[in-house]
Specification:
This is Ig-like domain-containing protein. This protein is an alpha+beta fold. The chain has helices spanning about 1-60, 185-190, 375-380, 410-415; strands at about 65, 70-75, 80-85, 90-95, 105, 115, 125-135, 140-150, 155, 155-160, 165, 175, 190-195, 200-205, 210-215, 225-230, 235, 240, 245-250, 255-260, 265-270, 275-280, 295, 300-305, 325-330, 340-345, 360-365, 390. A five-stranded mixed β-sheet has the order 22-21-20-28-23, with no helix packed on it. A four-stranded antiparallel β-sheet has the order 1-3-6-5, with no helix packed on it.
Length: about 425
């Protein structure tokens, strides 16, 4: 029994010693571990710095810039989108809509820039992904996304005359905006009208949506007029931006002016100052006289309908005082309904002797507009849009300058006073 106890005692002492040794080992290990952690962190820092340094050495020097900035909105649809690179050349540019439709573009010959080939769509989100390489062949990448201006946040100007047309000497450049413009100076500054004649050309605002341009005197015959719209991104009103960038040219034809004398009931047609024809006419009756003033032919119709109810001539039943569905050789002089046109329903005797119309200027003609020898047919065939018709000696007032393309009824001082620049 005693021997067993001693044996157990020795065994316990041995276990305790072993525990002490093991504990010491664990303690040493724990301390050692703490020390290793400190060394590992330092090593890790050094290692990360080395990695960063190595990465920097391996990074491409090419720097890509994408315009507009990522996340931009209300972006113009003509010039705003582009990609450029410095210290490198572009190798690939992909532009797509969010729906995945590709947008064609052109990379410059030197590889330094890229831009879309055409006008972008409004209210559309686009993505651009660009890749470039530096002189060592190392690649750089850049991505951006932006949204173009919406119709609600943009304006356009509908203009006349048309590109490539030939017009008369009285034809103004007339621009009608689809939204009211409050910053007229900014918008007018984005529009340039020039003439090969060297004439001074000034813009005049009739209201917040109409801007016309003309010189002091009629355009010089044979000259070329150029209209440049640089309105992309121009803010015309709070939160409303232009989207147009366009160049339009048109030519001025011969100088033809037709002068209607409502008192003598004749019209004298001149070209380049020389009388080429005198035509008997019938102007507005005393109850409905024709406007006086300088008026410009804005539209031509071989035949058209004229309904009195559309211009204020109504009977008690609401129908027009007249409704002629085939008026021949009609040419518009005012927005309110003044025309110079053929008249087949009146007796031949009224032309040159009586004013019988509701305000228009009538010339003898036939039903169907088929007789080229009629006075109205001759005038129609020898008139172009933009020719001037002057009415004098009528009992009515002068036509308002914004009633049609009739700004010539303002003198030059009055005209210039309507400019915002």
């Amino acid at each position: 029994m005693e021997k067993r106890v001693m044996t157990d005692s020795k065994r316990r002492k041995g276990l305790m010693a072993a525990s002490a040794v093991l504990g010491g080992v664990l303690a040493i290990s724990a301390c050692s571990s703490d020390g290793d952690k400190g060394g590992s962190a330092e090593s890790s820092k050094k290692s990360q710095a080395q990695v960063d340094e190595a990465a920097a050495k391996d990074a491409s020097k090419a720097r890509i810039t994408i315009s507009p900035k990522n996340g931009a909105s209300n972006i113009g649809i003509n010039n705003d989108a582009k990609v450029t690179v410095s210290d490198g050349t572009l190798t690939q540019v992909a532009m797509t809509t969010v729906a995945g439709e590709s947008v064609k573009g052109t990379l410059a010959a030197d590889g330094k820039s890229w831009k879309p080939d055409g006008q972008l769509e409004r209210s559309t989100t686009y993505k651009i992904a660009a890749t470039a390489k530096d002189s060592k062949g190392l690649e750089a990448h850049e991505n951006s996304s932006f949204t173009t201006v919406s119709p609600a946040n943009s304006f356009i100007g509908n203009f006349t005359p048309e590109d490539g047309s030939t017009v008369g000497v009285g034809m103004p450049v007339s621009i009608n905006f689809n939204k009211a413009i409050t910053d007229k100076k900014a918008v007018q500054s984005g529009i340039a009208v020039t003439s090969s004649s060297g004439q001074e050309i000034v813009g005049h605002w009739f209201n917040g949506q109409r801007l016309d341009f003309r010189p002091d005197q009629y355009w010089q015959e044979g000259s070329t007029v150029t209209l440049k719209l640089n309105l992309d991104g121009v803010q015309g009103a709070q939160g409303v931006f232009g989207v147009q960038q366009k160049t339009v040219t048109f030519k001025i034809g011969r100088n033809q002016v037709s002068t209607v004398d409502a008192s003598s009931k004749t019209m004298t047609v001149t070209q380049d100052g020389k009388t080429i024809k005198t035509i008997p006419i019938s102007a507005g009756a005393p109850d409905n006289p024709t406007y006086n003033g300088q008026m410009v032919i804005s539209e031509k119709f071989k035949e058209t309908r004229m309904d009195g109810s559309t211009v204020g001539f109504k009977k008690k039943d609401g129908k027009g005082e007249y409704d002629i569905k085939d008026v021949p050789h009609a040419m518009r002089l005012s927005t309110s309904g003044t025309f110079i046109h053929g008249n087949y329903w009146g007796a031949d005797s009224i032309f040159g002797s009586a004013n019988t119309s509701h305000g228009c200027v009538g010339l003898n003609d036939v039903k169907g507009a088929g007789d080229a020898n009629q006075p109205a047919a001759w005038l129609f065939n020898n008139t172009i849009v933009g020719d001037v018709v002057i009415v004098k000696n009528s009992q009515d007032r002068t036509v308002q300058p914004d009633n049609g393309l009739n700004g010539w009824n303002l003198n030059w001082t009055q005209w210039k006073a309507g400019s915002a620049v």
